[in-house]
Amino acid sequence: MPRTADHDERRIQVAEALLRTVARKGLARTTLADIADEMGVSVGLVQRYFRSKTALLRFGVEHLYRRGEERLLAEEPALPIHDFAYRLALTLLPQDEERRLELTVWLEFLPATVTDPEMARMHGEATRAVIDMFTRVLAAARERGELAEGLDPAQEARALDALIDGLTMHQLTNPDLYGDADSRAMLRRHLDRLFTAGEDTDERNTEGDRG
């Protein structure tokens, strides 16, 4: 058991080095030698855990999505549901250095989903998991009378996911136009349009500007 645990931990350490290197150099320019340098080990040691760069990249993406899922699951459900939905969505935006690094890497990996079936599968599963979570949250809001009348939770969950992805892309590529506070305010305004009950909208927006 300890040997297996050590092996798994070492693979995670290699994946973490991959993420840091890709965030700094870009995916196309990252080599196994770069990752080994980041860890202070030999290329042979990296290859001991991953036989190819492709295998490492796929594991790195899986690790990236797992970290995002852990953040979502760490949020405790609470009322009003509007605020819970806001906190969930906020975990997916690049609002601190750790998430900025991860989501920069996510943008680097995203084009590979067009040509790599395995990467496409992982991306699709992660996206569906996020949409399913927001669908459940919005369905609960509808049951409590918090969701605006006539809205479909599944459709609104997809729209919310698309908004988060768009804000992420613009925040990372156009930070002068889409700063942290701007993204929070846009997210708040979108949720305010979906919800009809709870705190006053102006108070929510003020809190959103503060983060």
Automatic annotation (TrEMBL):
InterPro entries: BetI_C, Homeodomain-like_sf, HTH-type_TetR-like_transc_reg, HTH_TetR, Tet_transcr_reg_TetR-rel_C_sf. The lineage of its organism: Bacteria, Bacillati, Actinomycetota, Actinomycetes, Streptosporangiales. GO terms for molecular function: DNA-binding transcription factor activity; transcription cis-regulatory region binding. It comes from Nocardiopsis alba (strain ATCC BAA-2165 / BE74). This is Bacterial regulatory s, tetR family protein. Residues 8-68 form the HTH tetR-type domain. Keywords: DNA-binding, Repressor, Transcription, Transcription regulation. Residues 31-50 bind DNA. Gene3D superfamilies: Tetracycline Repressor, domain 2.
